Amino acid sequence: MNLSFAPIALGPVFWLLLGLSVYTLYLVLYATLLLRREGRVEEGLLYRLEGLAQLAPLLGLLGTTWGMVQAFLALSGQGDPQGLAKGIAEALVNTGMGLLVAVVAYGGRVFLGGRR
What we know:
- With 116 residues, this protein is an all-alpha fold.
- It has one domain (12-113).
- It has helices at residues 12-38, 43-77, 81-113.
- The longest helix is centred in the middle third of the chain and has 35 residues, at 43-77.
- The termini are far apart.
- 29% of the residues are buried.
């Protein structure tokens, strides 16, 4: 059984979400550092985390739509099962990535907002 993760299933929305995940992690770590050093967190950081928590699932949904369009295009051509599987995999990866970014951003916002 081959469980390798093929990079061909990663579309353009995934790379955007990956960048947002790095930015979200940076914001959470920076806010944690501020909380430890100064005993407070800037409101602007919390608002950014809120915005990312709202934006990420929408981008994940956009990636899901993109992947499903790719799957249906593969199906409409010659009924290519590999193309169909690639499109569905891309859709699911984007959905998961969008939810992951949102969970980290929202969790960070709730955790840090309760400690100000």
